[in-house]
Structures are given as C-alpha cells and as structure tokens.
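FYI - complex with fructose -6-phosphate, inputs then prediction.
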Amino acid sequence: MKLIKANDYNDLSRKAANILSAQVILKPRSVLGLATGSSPIGVYKQLIEWYQKNDIDFSEVTTVNLDEYVGLAPENPQSYRYFMNHHFFNHINIDKTKTHVPNGIADDLEKECEAYNHLLDEVDGIDMQLLGIGLNGHIGFNEPDGEFEKLTHVVNLNASTIEANKRFFEKIEDVPKSAISMGIKSIMQAKHIVLIVSGQEKYDILKQSLFGPVTPHVPGSILQLHSHLTVIYSCGREL
Ligand code: F6R
C-alpha cells in the first residue's frame, strides 16, 4: 500500500488526476472504474483542464461506474449518470457509449445487476479504480454487513449513508433508499486502486480501514488485501 499525504483538497485532486492521466497516457485503451460524490469532483475538474490543453486523450477509454441510485432516471440531476455527464463526460472527448453506469430504473433490477457483471467481464478487468470511502467505511455502496457482497447487487442504504448524502437533495425524504452497487470482488479485481479521502471527519474510518481488522463491518478494510493500492488523503493529520 502506498500512502500519499496531500496538503489539501486541491493537492489531493491534482495528485490523483496525475495518476489517472499517466494511466491513460500509458494505455490509451484503459478501463477506468469511476466514483461519484464530493471526493472526485476536483480530480475530474483537473482532468478536464488537462484535456483542454491537449495533454490527455480519452477517445479510446472505457469507464465503469461503481453505483447508481435505484429509481433515479439518467436525466435526474441527482442520479449518478447525470453527475458523471455533468462533472466529467460532457467536457472530454470520451465516446459516451463506452461510459457505463448501472441503470437505476431498470424494470428488473436483478437482471440489471447480472448485465453489469457481464459487462465487467466483457471489458476484461478494470485497469484503475478511483474510489472514495463513506463515513461508515462503505466503498461503492457496499455497506457494513455480516459478509462481503462479491458481485453487483441491489443494496439498502444505511441510515448513516442516507444522512450523509442528503446534502445533495432538497430534503432527506428525497434520498433514494436503495442503490445498485458493484461488488467487492469486482472492485478488488481492479489492477490498481486509487483511494482518495478528504476531510478530518474521514480520518478515523480511514485509519480503521487501513490498519484495523479486515471485516465486512468496515467494507473499506478489504483494501488492505489489494496488491496495488494507492491512498491519497488530506485529513488534517498524518496516518
Ligand atoms: C460514490 C461511491 C461512494 C462514495 C462515498 C464517499 O460513487 O461509491 O462510496 O465514494 O460515499 O462520498 P463523498 O466523496 O461524497 O464523501
């Protein structure tokens, strides 16, 4: 595991963007696993800037996102598909047909999960997975539980996750209660995982995840077992 302490959110974003951009430069046909939420917004902003300066070409890149809320259509500004288009895809030369986010309004959610697993097999592995971590230790929407969910699944969001994500909605009742999430096995199969963690409030869960026991009650703890994990953090204190 490689730990990189960043000075602040901007520094963290630039460092992570540097790693992603090197990945795409070295392998133009990279498959990138992407995340939503507050943590990666700065990374996407930086990558857009470098794209505009002709430093990166995304034309051959494929992306797979970690998760999507159940019940939100792609046009809904709170959906993760909308988020990705708005914060990243609309501003770079990526082929949108090569960008994948689970479909939260699929008629048959179980089939949608199977189809997403099939897609992950078809793209032949994620080269680099960008990850954030929730205050309760979730990665993707793999919530603390008695066991690790291996593959893409429908998950009931924890009260703490709904509480944490209400900031993106008008009122807490609007936050969807369930989501589709890539499973732990799929995340762990990524060749390189880049975890970005910002904010003092994340310090304890990050420490627990990286140095505590590996347990499904702290889903992020599984990352200790990954052979190529880079953690970039800015939590006010050294780990
Ligand atoms: C988002 C995702 C989540 C977030 C986590 C942290 O696609 O899978 O695991 O990474 O909830 O969210 P932020 O970055 O908003 O603190």
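Strands lie at 2-5, 31-34, 62-65, 67-69, 99-100, 128-131, 153-156, 178-181, 192-198, 229-234. The first strand starts at residue 2 and ends at 5.
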